DNA sequence: ATGGCTTTCGCAATCGATTGCATCCTAAAA
DNA sequence: TTTTAGGATGCAATCGATTGCGAAAGCCAT
C-alpha cells in the first residue's frame, strides 16, 4: 500500500510552468492553444506518465466514457458474441463497457437500466427482456440526450437506433427452404409473439406457406415459453402424435430444434427423411448435433460492433440530431443435413468439411 | 433534451433544513448522526428521488463501486458463465461490472488492465491470457491496495486470492476413468504448459498412468496451441496413424475432444469401443455430440460468484489484511457414452435421458 | 448555575478536470 | 505611433460527495 500519487494536470502545469486550464486544453487539442504548447504538454504528459482521472472528467461533464450494455443473459452464445463485438469496438474507441443482464425479467431490466443511468454511461445498448412491454425506464436516457441503440430484440415504437436482422425474411426463407426440400406440412416452434424477433419469424413462416400454396394450420404452430431443449422435445412429442404429423419443423431457435432432433432420433424418426428440421442462430451445437442442424446464421458480433460504433458516433457528435436509424443486417440460411433431402443418404453420419 | 436536474444532497439538505454533510452522513448511516435525522434524510431522499452521483463519490474516494473483469475471450462458454456469475453477484451487492477481453494476447491484457485501473475499479477479477508470463501490470493494483482475484487461469506466484479447480486431480480422475474403462494406451491433448490449468491436467494424466502401471509415452502427448476443433482433428489423424494407435484420449478441453470424435467417426473408428474419449469443461456441445462426450464439469458460474464476493468483501473491509486465500472448487466427472464401454452397445445412438 | 461530557451537526477543504470569461501580448492595420 | 483584432493563456467557479476538525447543544452532577 505505497499509494503512489497519480500525476494530475496540476503536476503537469507546474512542470510546464503554465496553468492547469492550459494543460487541459492542450491535451484535448483545444483550438485556442498554440501548437507548440500542445506538443509540449502532450510530451510532458507522456514523460510523467499522466493518466486522466476519468471520474473527475465524468463528474464535470456528467458523462463517462463508458457504454452500458443490457442483455437478457450473458451466458448465451448470441449474447456473448454480441458483447464481445461491443467490447472490441468500444475499447478501440477508448470506451469501457459496463454489462448487466436482466435474466429476461422486466423488473431487472428496469433496475439495471437505472443503475447504468446512474453510472452516467455515454450510451446504452439494449436487447430487450422477453417480458418487457413498457419502455418508460428508457425515458431517462432520451430525456438526457443519452443515445440508446436497441439490438436484435427491439421495440416497435421508440425514438432510437435499431440494429436488427430481417426476421420476417429470415423466417420466410427458412420455411421456403423446407418447402424446397419437399415438405408439405411444416410445423413451427414459435417464441413469444410480443418480441419482434419471434413475431417476425412467425409471420415469415406463415407467408411462406401461403405463397407456396400450403395451408397454415394452427395446430402446427406451437407457442414456446423459453425455446429450451425440453420444450423442444415436448413439442415434438406432441406433434408426432398428431393424426397427421408434420414432415418439417422450423424452430425459432437452435436449442429447441436440437431438442426436436434428439426426440425424433429417440423415436426412430428419420431426420431429414421423415422430418426435416431447421433452426435459428447457428449456435455451436447446431453444427455438432447429429445430423447437423440447418439454421439461419445471425451476425451477432457484427451487430455488437455496429451498435458500439453508433453509440460512439452519437456520443461524440453531441449536437447533431441524427435521426434514429434502423440498420438491418443480412442473415444466411445454412443448409446442413437436418433439412437436406437430396444429396446425403439419410442416416449417413455427418462430416464437417 | 429537457435535461431535468438530478437531486443532490444539497437539495436534500435544503429540504431538511440541515447541511449537506449531515445528509451525506445520514445516508451512509454514519454513527455520529442521530437515528431521527437519519430516518428523516433517508425518507426525504426516497421522496425526492435522490440518486447518489457515483462519479462524485468515486472521485472523492478515488474508487468506484465497480468490479473490473479481464478474461481471454467473452465469447466462450466458460467465460460467459463466469461473467454471468460475477455480474449477478456484483449487482446484488450494488456493484457494476466492467468487462474486457484480452483475446489471449499479453499486450491486450496489459492495456486492458491499465484501462480498468484508470477507471478506479474497486477490484479486479482476472483469468490470464494464454500468453501471459509477466505480471508487472497487476502491480498497480496491489500497490494501491486494490484487491485482485485470479480465476481459473491463475499465476503461481502473486500475492492475491485465487479461485480455481483442482486441475491435477481432475486430470488424474479423467485419466483414471479411461483406465477404468479398460484403456491401455491413452493419448492426451495438452494445452499450453505455461498455464496452470493445462499443466495441472497434464500432470494428473501422467501420474494416473504411472499409478496404474501404464507407461507414459511422449508420442501420445500432443501439444496444442488453441485446443480447437481443427487441431483436435489433426491430432487424432496423427495419432491414429501411429503404428500403435491409442485406445483412449483425454483432451484438455471439449472443443478439441469433439474434433476427435468427429474425425474418428469419419474414419469409422468406434467410439468408445476402439477409442474412448473424455474432454474437459462440459460445454453445451459435449452433451450434443454423438456419442455424447464424457467430460469434467467446471463450476464456472460459481467461480464467478465467489470471485465477486471476494472482491466485495475485501473492498468493504478495507483495513483488514486478509491473507490471500486460494479457494478450490469441486469438479465432477460426467461419464457419457464417448467413454463408457460397459452398458451401452457400441454404436447405439445416444439418447438423453 | 457552572463544569464536564457526550451527542449531533456544520464549515470548509478536497478529489481532478473542464470551461466561460477576462486578460495579456503581439502583430497588423490605420 | 496608436489602435485593434485576435491568438494564447490564466482565473476561478463548477461538478457532487466526503470528512477532519471544531463548535454548539443537551444532559447530568455537584
Salient structural properties:
homodimer, 353 residues, alpha/beta, 434 Repressor (Amino-terminal Domain), Rossmann fold, 6-stranded parallel sheet, 12 strands, elongated
CATH topology of the largest domain in chain A: Rossmann fold
Main beta sheet strand tally, sense and closure of chain A: 6 strands, parallel
CATH architectural designation of the largest domain in chain A: 3-Layer(aba) Sandwich
Q: How do the helices and strands follow one another from N- to C-terminus of chain A? A: HHHHEHEHEHEEHEHEHEHEHEHEE
- Percentage beta strand of chain A: 5-15%
Oligomer: homodimer
Overall domain count of chain A: 3
Walk me through the structure.
Two copies of one chain form a homodimer. Chain A is built from 13 helices and twelve strands. Chain A has helices at residues 9-16, 20-27, 35-48, 54-61, 77-92, 106-118, 139-143, 167-180, 196-211, 229-240, 254-266, 284-288, 300-317, and strands at residues 66-71, 96-101, 123-126, 148-151, 161-165, 186-190, 221-223, 248-251, 276-278, 295-297, 326-329, 332-334. Chain A has a six-stranded parallel beta sheet, with helices on both faces. Chain A starts with 8 loop residues before the first helix and ends in a 19-residue tail after the last strand. The first copy, chain A, folds into three domains: 9-52, 434 Repressor (Amino-terminal Domain); 65-165 and 299-329, Rossmann fold; 167-298, Response regulator (Rossmann fold, 3-Layer(aba) Sandwich). Chain A has 353 residues and is an alpha/beta fold. At the A-B interface, helix 4, helix 5, strand 2, helix 6 and helix 11 of A face helix 4, helix 5, strand 2, helix 6 and helix 11 of B. Chain A binds a DNA duplex (30 and 30 nucleotides) through helix 2 and helix 4.
